[in-house]
Amino acid sequence: MPNSREWMVVMQTSEAPSVVGLALGTGMVDSCEVGVGRRHSGDLAPKLAELMAKNGVSIDDIGSVAVSRGPGGYTGLRVGLASALALTLIKDADLLAVPTLEAMAWQCPVEWDSVRMVADALRGRAFVQEFIRRDGAWEAAGPMELAPWESIRGGQADRKQMPWAGPGCHHATSLGIQVMGTAPTQPSVEGLRLAALNRIRKGFVDNPGEVDILYGQPSSAEEQWKKLHPEGVV
Fold first, then answer.
1. Is the residue at 179 inside a domain?
2. If 0-12 CB within 10 Å is exposed, 13-18 middle and 19+ buried, where does residue 222 land?
3. What is the C-alpha to C-alpha distance for residues 38 and 127, in angstroms, rounded to an integer?
4. Is CB count within 10 Å lower at the N or C end of the chain?
5. What is the pTM of this model?
6. CATH number reported for the structural domain that contains residue 47 in this entry
7. Span 177-202, mean pLDDT?
8. Exposed, middle or buried: residue 226 (CB in 10 Å: 0-12, 13-18, 19+)?
């Protein structure tokens, strides 16, 4: 059963600027940007502590932690998930590791009933996933796909008429894909909060020992490891 403690920590670390926030069931209460450049690891915990102190929230008040799972930047996602895991394990809070594209569907205009989310996966590829609104809640219409940008552009005529949104919209626009001005292009803590609440309502929380991030390009450390260990031997 989901936790009864009311406060939720929300960590949007998939896209810069990273944002950490505090929320109650009625909405976001407070939030602040985290880090400059690559300083996520040094800034996230102190910023969260400041935010909690400012709002009179103790760690014992935290019932759930919502964090971006990706796609997004490798460093930000890793730091965010590590911080979320620490909170959930120390105080037995519920973990909601929400895919970034799912969270952004909750930021779409109220008149939309479907959306095609897109995020840059680097190296000429994109993450694409479609969502539909059913009974007031957003849900995935299919799995997230990893495809070359050129195939996305070439296949537009064959796709259902859906508006485009997501952090990859700037790239989509450069390829001639039309993006509406009301389309969300930057993830927010509010979208993450709403997606996490929907998961809680369904009775779903993540197992801290099984969750991992989603990202498009291996980190420099992973690339170096592959060069040094081409056979995959540890």
1. no
2. exposed
3. 24
4. C
5. 0.86
6. 3.30.420.40
7. 95
8. exposed
